[in-house]
Amino acid sequence: MRTALVGGGATGIGRAVAEDLARGGHRVVITGRRAEALETAAQELRAATGAPVHWLVNDMSAPDTAAHLLGEIGSEYGPLDVLVLNSGGPAPGAVLAVDDAQWQSAFELLLLGPLRLARLVLPAMAQRGFGRVVFVTSTAVRQPQPGLATSVVLRSAVTAAAKLLSHEFAADGVTVNCVAPGATATDRRAQILAARAAATGRAYADVVAEDSAAVPAGRPAEPTEIAAAVAFLASSAASYVNGTVLTVDGGRTETI
Fold first, then answer.
1. 102 SS3 class
2. Which residues contact 159 (CB under 8 A, 6 or more apart)?
3. CA torsion, ordered 36, 194, 108, 73, to nearest 10 deg
4. Would you say 159 and 136 are in contact if contact means Cβ atoms under 8 Å apart?
5. CB within 10 Å: which end of the chain, N or C, has fewer?
6. Are 86 and 113 a contacting pair, CB within 8 Å?
7. 215: which DSSP letter?
8. How far apart are CA 147 and CA 130, in angstroms?
9. Tell me: the pLDDT tens digits for 196-247?
């Protein structure tokens, strides 16, 4: 049984990924900042899947937590085979409206935190001859959105880092890829659209309808649809998919 660590696993996309991996036969460890939400999610996931789902509190943005987290996982559940680097996004804001403290906080959460975990996990995966690392980013890295400056800038950096990492251990059975979700029916989307409505003085329902209409599919994704892409990249079947960005956005991104 392979062991998977899923960041932000209590809610939204992370929870859907955890459920998909658990149904696929993985032992899953979900992490996040809120113990109560993690414990509840783990209980519900175990009941839904019949698979071993565990939880550990971890703050991706805290510099000293990565080694401790991986040490706990290793001692309790064995070596890590799949690492899904998913975290909540920073607050919306235009590029010049974000102050230094906000940039630094987002830098720790979106870039440095995931890279700390990858730095500790990838060499051990290579030694065992199998590993899957999936960064959950955003379609905003391909089609920047002005009101999501920190996400656009820092997830673009994550995408570049993932490309570099994909070269490091490819010959050892380890792949590194990104999944870039578009509009997805999560609390995060609701927060972004609420901020947009407040900034423009428009009704929230109108902003939601406009956002959905901009997607050729006519609706946001369900978290399970993003999870399916992550689970594929985490599988043995994706052994020759490496260093790529899998966009899951209903056709919204206009770049080729």
1. helix
2. 135, 137, 141, 178, 180, 245
3. 30
4. no
5. C
6. no
7. S
8. 39
9. 888 889 999 988 888 899 899 999 999 999 999 999 999 999 999 999 999 9
